[in-house]
Amino acid sequence: MDFIVAGFIKAIELLISGDYSTWTAVLATLKVSTISMLLSVGAGLPCGFLIGYFDFKGKKHLRTILDTLLALPTVFIGLAVYAFISRQGPLGELGLLFTLTGIAIGQTILAFPIVTAITASIVENIDQDLKLTLVSLGAGKRNIIATCLWEVRYGILTAAVTAYGRVLTEVGISMMVGGNIKYHTRTITTAIALETNKGMFADGIALGVVLITIAFIVNLSLSFLRKQ
Amino acid sequence: MTKKDLIYYLKEIRHFYGDTKVLEIDDLKIEKGSITGLIGPNGSGKTTLLRVLAFAEKPKFGQIFYKGRPEFPFSSTIRSKVTLLTQKPYLLKRTVFENISYGLKIRKDTDKLEKRVIEALNNVGLDFKDFALRKWHELSGGEAQRVAMAARLILKPEVLLLDEPTASVDTESAKLIRKASLKARDVWGTTLVIASHDLQWLYSISDKQFSLFKGNIFATGIENIISGPFENLDDKVVKKLDDGQIITLDVTQKKECIAVIIRKKNITIELFESTDKIFHNQLSGHIVSMLLEEKRGDIMVTVFVHDLTFVLRVTPDQISNLDLYPGKKVVLKFSSSDVEWIK
Question: Which member of B88, B89, B103 has the closest CB to residue A138?
Answer without folding.
Answer: B103
